[in-house]
Amino acid sequence: MKVPLLDLRAQYAVIKQEVKQAVEEVLEEQQFILGERVAEFEGRMAEYVGISRAVGVASCTDGLLLSLMALGISPDNEIITTPFTFFSTAGIIARLNAKPVFMDIDPGSFNIDPDLVERKITPRTRAIIPVHLFGQCAPMDEITQIAEKHNLQVVEDAAQAIGASYKGRKAGSMGMVGCFSFYPSKNLGAMGDGGVVVTSKPELAERIRLLRNHGAESKYRYSTVGINSRLDALQAAILTVKLKYIDQWNRARRQNAENYTRLFRQANLAADEQGKMDDDPSNHIPVIIPAVLPECHHVFHQYAIRVRDRDRLKDYLAREGIGTAIYYPIPLHLQKCFSYLGYKQGELKNAERCAAECLSLPIYPELTPTQQEYVVEKIAAFFRKR
Ligand SMILES: *Cc1c(COP(=O)(O)O)cnc(C)c1O
Known about the structure:
This protein is of the alpha/beta class and 386 residues long. The protein has helices spanning 8-29, 36-49, 60-70, 88-95, 114-117, 140-150, 202-211, 233-243, 246-266, 310-319, 349-357, 369-385, and strands at residues 53-57, 78-81, 99-102, 125-129, 153-157, 165-166, 169-170, 177-181, 195-199, 216-218, 221-222, 296-297, 303-306, 358-361.
């Protein structure tokens, strides 16, 4: 049996006619940059997140960059974030010559551990970028409380978390700004690159709108220096079609996650000690299943298990036709490009441990129960053989 990590063709088969029609309309209109289609999608997106403003941009990476530019982040500023995330969360900080400050994570949720944030704050700290990793929100109450106390901006990296919520509040709506990615493999994927920035602050939205288009106030009049980072009309039209399905797709992902967890428990592969970091190898739980926090509505961009013999398991599953992925094999504080920051191996232990143990299993909405049973069966077979 073949179980790919992701099967975008299965999704496309369902929405093909609608997408083709939307694309056809844009082709007839021949209006490709910004315009009505982008404005319409921005409106729908704002409504979906439950926030007043949305600005379409070329990618989430650019969205994060534009957010920091709009907030006036300057070279001597420090920004606190997680090392266990996709590169761009920190890359954009360094791009502005500001300093990324990495802190350790909670190994259960994979998100920043709020108890550690305050230790990282210095007089130069200007912002915190929490990442809602794998589709589950970071502890936003604690983060916003600390941010208010120290007068810091909160920029949510919600790239993986469209539709997720925290105590009833949608991802992206809790910080000063929130950024989403429409990279094709994300829960809401474009057919190319795309992103959006959401905020409830009209002046900030206007500033980002200006900055995404070179800083042009009107044609050929520049009040500030921006970049070229616009969402295009084709992507906006496709995303407008796909946004209608996002809750349905997220429901299917959640259902698949529940199903995995049930199957792992039935196979006696997972204990209830969800997310614990136990250094005692005799206490042998082969599979640590992802923790779902009660205050979070998890949308399972990834279903990441933790296992000890991760790389061998990954190879074994590949031979059995099962696609898996490692998010993320090297935490950002240990990346070569950030060596100038001076972090050492062992400094952010939980992030390093998760980088060594995490394995993402197929979780896409169209995955079938039979495929899931096969995945768990093969994982069980691997641990029996050892
Ligand atoms: C995908 C992703 C990004 C970058 O999104 P792009 O749209 O590809 O630029 C940023 N942060 C996280 C956590 C991501 O998963």
